[in-house]
Design goal:
Chain A is α/β, with parallel strands linked by helices. Chain A has four domains: 128 residues, Rossmann fold (3-Layer(aba) Sandwich); 187 residues, 3-Layer(bba) Sandwich (FAD/NAD(P)-binding domain); 134 residues, FAD/NAD(P)-binding domain (3-Layer(bba) Sandwich); 75 residues, 2-Layer Sandwich (Alpha-Beta Plaits). Helix content of chain A is 30%, strand content 24%. Chain A is built from 15 helices and 30 strands. In chain A, the strands form ten sheets. Chain A has a five-stranded parallel β-sheet with strand order 8-7-6-12-25, covered by helices on one side. In chain A, strand 17, helix 9 and strand 18 form a beta-alpha-beta unit. In chain A, helix 6 packs parallel to helix 12, helix 8 runs parallel beside helix 9 and helix 9 runs parallel beside helix 10. Chain A is elongated, with a radius of gyration of 32 Å. Chain B is of the alpha/beta class. In chain B, strand 11, helix 4 and strand 12 form a beta-alpha-beta unit. In chain B, helix 1 crosses helix 2, helix 1 crosses helix 7 and helix 3 packs parallel to helix 4. Chain B is elongated and about 70 Å long. The chains are: A alpha/beta, B alpha/beta. Chains A and B meet through helix 10 and helix 12 of A and helix 2, helix 5 and helix 7 of B.
């Protein structure tokens, strides 16, 4: 048996002296105990220092802390332990705080409980194994997928931080969907000019490689050692080995064209942006006729995306002010949850833009070359006073449905990220702080996660750049090996674990001679390997450990044996 | 010798903490000061608003980040400390900090202002009777009630309320008090509170009175649909004008236009919860003089040019929820690092 050192933590007096004395007396009778010390507050700097000094003598191999919540010590111990004389995983904790509190009422029974807890912790300690650390070198190279404004911004920010960026864009030019916009709602800047400046900057940045009409075809490996294959515009395949990957492939829109929606006077918001950009003065022309009334029908699709609402209000102000049109906006809710939007909305109302909040969807019909829109005005309180309103309009603007970019699903087959209900990547997971993905080293930003206004996307872009810089800045990713591990001798290559791993940290590869399988008659060639957990990519969730039918996967810091010891099932 | 740090972060809420953690990860040394004795700011008192599943309220993220920063030894966290004076030029600021009676000098290159926000002072809307009627509380009061006492009750008698009305846009989108902005977070915040309350206390019926429902994030549509499907939640587009209080019985009545019935109704409620909007933290106004910050039209700080070495993080630059505050603080951390490397 290994020699064990014991520290009793009084938790600043939470565990009373008489109680501690009784515990100490009990421990003295146990075998293999090197010493048993008491501390008023073990996790205080003084307490940690004294603990370190004592352990430096090197006469113990395991440590048991008797005190409170294990989590509490884990951080202190790790913090101190990494550079200390002992491996930080060679300690176990007996949480006796509750028993100590019950001492008042339960007396001897509480002491008995405490004894059981301590015995288990000591047994656990004797089963502990040291756990090494490892590290993956990270070279400053990042692949950014998508050349929209988010991709460009991330690329530029990373390049400024001295990281080499490979920007992969499937289309033939940079800029993405933001090029459909004429102006920003909150900045007096022409979008095209702004993007052009950015593109010039990209082309003048030496450590950025831009590949247009290129597509990611394959991705192997994990953080720090990704192997990406990119098909370039000339049909050749190029291999890259980025340390991290940023996905910013944006979103796409789908326009309803059935029935009346195919009418030439029913257009989308980007059409109006274009029209406003081309026209110089009133009257506005569309399909050979003057445009005097414009009606926006919003919220029939994308109810939870505020981009359309923002653009519709921005456009209606321009239409009303510069082109003397009468504009009506029909929506379910006026979405003004963006900085400055409420003021813009009020200004639009003051300028004469009409807003109707509908409950029943407005009816569109054709009336003498105009589009007639019937809507019920719900502004009146009484139902019977909610008169139907008919608007004869020269131009009807409907929103297009925001959908994931068509290649998202295929791309995700390669990247293996989480897809949300609607097919966007990594739709919502607060724990990943929005920009991280389920795989370490892969980040998601912009419209491929969720369509949003340009200014918000840009903040997100910088947040992603920050995450990537924070990951790469140290030059290596250090991890400890307290993760899942496959025993290749037991692995039957059933593919249960790679399918279940939520972080895509498990791959099947040939790395053990034991599992090489050759069908009868085959002359080499076909061989099987075993599953392998990449320790840098593993989050230690334990799903594979529980699910492996062959029990080939173990947790290095929580083996079955150790769990049984804690449950008192070992005997 | 005067202590030197790269960055001073003012405010120990979620934005300040995130900025400090992110800067520390890239090897930038930071001192974080917080006026209060504890970290976390406003968001530290948020309760978990999960119902059957997580409703993405981010309360747990805040708790986790607080424990993250406490563990780190390379960030000096000074609670109970405030900024007293600032001298010098961008890149070489000399700041004086005050902790109780103690004074402390510090040299920093850049400053991040993460002063945060205050909930709107609901008693200013006298017609709703906050502060006068015990059973009119703010959404934040309810949040703290759920977090620290684990239940919803009427402050007047401690009883579980059967009917609760939630008033939206209290202090937001309101011309009468000059707040011409949407606080952006309150719709989702109040609906999450309702879901959490309905899940824990199915007997409580909620009425959500709103102007427009503002979406928040990728899963909001599904979340809203689950609220609409819940028979115990009524979503009514109407803002009540006044709360009537009967001193003898202590009951609260409100008049509002019920768009579902198409008439003006008067209904009693056991508890009224006001979804208060955001205003810049009152204490933060003194910072504007010290740091030369100007205000936006809406009364939040407007971003100073990056050459000044002073940056904003989080909701003090405009209404933001925890989610967007984290993104904003991260993006600020990047700018700070670039400033220190001499980009601007």
């Amino acid at each position: 048996m290994a020699r064990i050192g014991i520290f009793i933590d009084a938790l600043k007096g939470s565990i009373s002296l008489p109680f501690r004395e009784r515990i100490a007396a009990m421990i003295e009778g146990l075998p293999d105990i090197a010493f048993c010390l008491q501390e008023e507050d073990l996790t205080s700097p003084g307490g940690l220092e004294r603990m370190g000094k004592r352990l430096e003598r090197g006469d113990v191999e395991r440590v048991v802390i008797i005190g409170g919540n294990p989590k509490f010590y884990e951080s202190s111990f790790l913090k101190w332990g990494i550079s200390g004389p002992m491996n930080p995983y060679l300690f176990s904790v007996a949480n006796i705080r509750e028993s100590a509190l019950l001492m008042e009422t339960d007396g001897e029974e509480a002491l008995e409980n405490t004894k059981v807890i301590i015995t288990k912790a000591i047994r656990m300690a004797s089963l502990l194994k040291p756990i090494e650390t490892g590290s993956v070198p990270l070279k400053p190279e990042v692949m950014v997928l998508g050349g929209g404004i988010v991709g460009i911004s991330i690329g530029l920010e990373l390049a400024r931080s001295g990281i080499h960026v490979v920007l992969v864009e499937t289309g033939d030019h940079l800029g993405g969907r933001a090029l459909e916009l004429r102006t920003f709602y909150n900045r007096p800047v022409e979008v095209r000019k702004w993007i052009d400046e950015k593109v010039v900057e990209v082309n003048g940045t030496p450590n950025m490689t831009v590949l247009t009409r290129a597509e990611l075809k394959g991705l192997e490996g994990h953080v720090g050692r990704f192997q990406a294959r990119v098909k370039r515009n000339d049909g050749t395949m190029t291999a890259f080995s980025p340390s991290a990957i940023v996905v910013a492939t944006g979103c796409s829109t789908r326009r309803e064209v059935k029935g009346i929606y195919g009418h030439k006077r029913i257009v989308s918001l980007p059409d109006v942006e274009r029209l406003l950009g081309e026209a110089s003065a009133a009257p506005l022309q569309w399909e050979g006729r003057n445009v005097e009334t414009v009606v926006y029908v919003l919220d029939e699709v994308n109810q939870d995306i505020k981009v359309d609402s923002i653009n519709a209000i921005k456009q209606s102000l321009a239409l009303q002010e510069a082109f003397e049109c009468q504009v009506a906006v029909l929506c379910k809710d006026v979405k003004v949850a963006a900085d400055g939007m409420e003021r813009l909305y009020r200004k639009a109302r003051e300028k004469g833009v009409l807003f109707f909040k509908y409950e029943e969807a407005p009816k569109l019909s054709i009336d003498d070359g105009h589009i007639r829109i019937d809507v019920k005005d719900t502004a009146a309180i009484r139902k019977e006073e909610q008169w139907p309103v008919s608007i004869l309009s020269d131009l009807v603007v409907v929103s297009e449905a925001f959908v994931p970019a068509p290649e998202t699903e295929k791309l995700n087959g390669i990247l293996r990220l989480h897809l949300g209900d609607r097919g966007f990547l990594m739709e919502d997971n607060p724990q990943l702080l929005r920009v991280r993905s389920n795989r370490r080293g892969i980040f998601v930003a912009g419209g491929c996660r969720f369509p949003q206004a340009v200014s918000e996307s840009l903040i997100e872009a910088r947040a992603v750049a920050q995450e990537v810089v924070a990951l790469l800045t140290k030059g290596s990713y250090a991890y400890d090996l307290a993760v899942a591990e496959v025993d290749p001798a037991k692995c039957a290559v059933c593919y249960t674990c790679p399918r279940l791993c939520p972080h895509s940290a498990i791959t099947v590869e040939k790395y053990a001679e034991r599992n090489v399988y050759a069908p009868p008659g085959a002359t080499g060639g076909i061989t099987w390997g075993a599953a392998r957990v990449d320790p840098a990519a593993c989050y230690g969730c334990g799903i594979c450990v529980a699910e492996c039918p062959a029990k080939a996967i173990t947790f290095r810091h929580l083996t079955d044996e150790q769990i049984y010891a804690q449950m008192n099932l070992a005997d | 010798m005067i202590e030197k740090k790269d960055v001073l972060i003012i405010g120990g809420g979620i934005s300040g903490i995130t900025a400090a953690l992110d800067l520390a990860q890239t090897g930038v040394s930071a001192a974080l000061i917080e006026r209060e004795p504890t970290l976390g700011g406003l968001s530290a008192s948020f309760c978990c608003k999960a119902s059957e599943a997580c409703n993405k309220c981010f309360a747990c993220v805040v708790d986790k980040r607080i424990s993250d920063i406490v563990r780190r030894q390379d960030i000096s966290v000074l609670t109970g400390t405030e900024l007293l004076d600032l001298k010098g030029n961008p890149g070489e600021y000399a700041v004086t900090l005050k902790a109780g009676r103690e004074r402390r000098e510090l040299k920093v290159s850049a400053i991040v202002v993460a002063a945060g926000i205050d909930p709107y002072e609901a008693s200013e809307k006298a017609e709703y009777g906050y502060g006068r009627y015990k059973n009119v509380i703010t959404a934040r009061d309810l949040d703290e009630m759920l977090r620290y006492q684990g239940k919803i009750f009427r402050p007047s008698d401690g009883r579980l309320p059967e009917t609760v009305a939630f008033f939206q846009c209290v202090g937001s989108r309101d011309e009468s008090i000059g707040h011409l902005y949407c606080s952006q977070v309150c719709c989702a915040y109040a609906l999450r509170l309702i879901k959490a309350v309905r899940y824990q206390f199915p007997g409580v019926k909620a009425t959500f009175l709103y102007m427009d429902i503002q979406p928040a994030g990728a899963s909001f549509q599904a979340f809203l649909a689950s609220c609409q499907a819940d028979k115990g939640i009524r979503l009514i587009r109407s803002l009540p004008s006044k709360v009537y209080h009967s001193p003898s019985t202590g009951s609260l009545r409100i008049r509002f236009t019920d768009s579902t019935k198409g008439e003006v109704v008067e209904e009693p409620f056991d508890l009224i919860v006001l979804s208060v909007g955001m205003v810049l933290k009152k204490d933060a106004k003194s910072l504007s003089k010290l740091l030369g910050l100007s205000f936006t039209e809406d009364g939040f700080f407007s971003s100073p040019p990056p050459q000044t070495g002073i940056f904003l993080a989080g909701a003090c630059s405009g209404p933001k929820d925890v989610d967007r505050s984290i993104s904003h603080a991260k993006s600020t951390a990047l700018l700070v690092r670039q400033f220190l490397q001499g980009r601007f």
